[in-house]
Amino acid sequence: xxxxxxxxxxxxxxxxxxxxxxxxxxxxxxxxxxxxxxxxxxxxxxxxxxxxxxxxxxxxxxxxxxxxxxxxxxxxxxxxxxxxxxxxxxxxxxxxxxxxxxxxxxxxxxxxxxxxxxxxxxxxxxxxxxxxxxxxxxxxxxxxxxxxxxxxxxxxxxxxxxxxxxxxxxxxxxxxxxxxxxxxxxxxxxxxxxxxxxxxxxxxxxxxxxxxxxxxxxxxxxxxxxxxxxxxxxxxxxxxxxxxxxxxxxxxxxxxxxxxxxxxxxxxxxxxxxxxxxxxxxxxxxxxxxxxxxxxxxxxxxxxxxxxxxxxxxxxxxxxxxxxxxxxxxxxxxxxxxxxxxxxxxxxxxxxxxxxxxxxxxxxxxxxxxxxxxxxxxxxxxxxxxxxxxxxxxxxxxxxxxxxxxxxxxxxxxxxxxxxxxxxxxxxxxxxxxxxxxxxxxxxxxxxxxxxxxxxxxxxxxxxxxxxxxxxxxxxxxxxxxxxxxxxxxxxxxxxxxxxxxxxxx
Length: 506
Fold this sequence. Notes:
Blueprint: E1 11-18, H1 28-37, E2 44-52, E3 66-75, H2 90-103, H3 106-116, H4 136-140, H5 143-156, H6 162-181, E4 187-192, H7 196-209, E5 213-217, H8 221-231, H9 252-270, E6 273-276, H10 280-287, E7 295-297, E8 319-323, H11 332-345, E9 350-354, H12 361-373, E10 380-384, H13 388-391, E11 397-400, H14 409-416, E12 421-424, H15 429-434, E13 447-450, H16 455-466, H17 469-486, H18 489-502
Parallel strand pairs: 1-2, 1-4, 2-3, 4-5, 5-6, 6-7, 8-9, 8-11, 9-10, 11-12, 12-13
């Protein structure tokens, strides 16, 4: 039974999450649920950052050691702001905002935290001696905020379209103000599962309370936002620098990307510990200010005992399956195109797409149209959200077509069930399928790794595995052995217990 209790009692760890647990199932959310359940001696609170204030269905029963769930919307419902006296230095605030948005300056961010926690006197009753800190409405809706926005625009992006800058400001800085004005529940440490706004909240909590912050990144948030923004057709480029590409002017797309990178830099510099799932991610963390003494790799772990009872079932049709949300970053469209390639060689193939379809309804509709256009109605099946334990015995090959990943749990789950994988070359997928450079002895190939967004390569790799039972079984056996050796739940849980011990939580 889901419990949401009072956030006033201190907890050992306050987890700060953005756009996932407990409202989105699978992926990082599954990992978060695992993390809390493998640390039964610790108490947890959850601050879930959401895009807006709309009610959301909770997809998980919270573990028994969770004491509260608090939702922080980035775009809360606004009211007419009270007439607060925002006696902040305009020029100084412009300078501070530029340092936060473009330089990732933690001292400037600490200045904003202090300003957001400074009690104000409110008109029309200045004699009332009950000052309170600024509300979100007062900060985001004040005339001073408008003046500061103009000043930042003139300094950072004067050549960009102002209307586009205005909406970028509303999103980037409005969300920042939401993080700055949201209550901070008491905890012995604040553990964010990304940079972005979750990371800013953890950094703000660390500055406000003096307690440590830790960051764990699966995928690198800034890299994923960069991909989203580069591909975004709702952003219009208004600065054209020509073929030389030496133009140093800032367009609104650049402003978005630079701001997210600055937010990450602030988070890395304030955090006491920074973990990720595999070593290659650390180069991106270092590039944005993470120092070597804070960095650590903690791979995901899988609970092998859950998969002990899985016995392959007779399949009437060769089956390739993808487990993942139907969203662009998973590149479901490439899997659909690959299905057309596979069917040419294996006419009776069944292609399963297993995951929630409600996160991006427009993309889901586009994927369904693509299935129809390619005449794959009898080949491709969207199952929606399923219990994968019921489907694993039916799979011959697991496929992952993402354009950005970290260390996907679905590949480890496939390995636990001895199912070979075809994966795009993203995150740590090559290390899992082919073995890391330091794997001694190297166990061999556990599937195939292909370039992202290459439907033909994906299709050919699936055809190779479906068409060769001996190869398929050998790859599945290798993946199972690699998971047993390097990716167990117990090893991973112990490393997080050590992390919390170093943060003086245990």
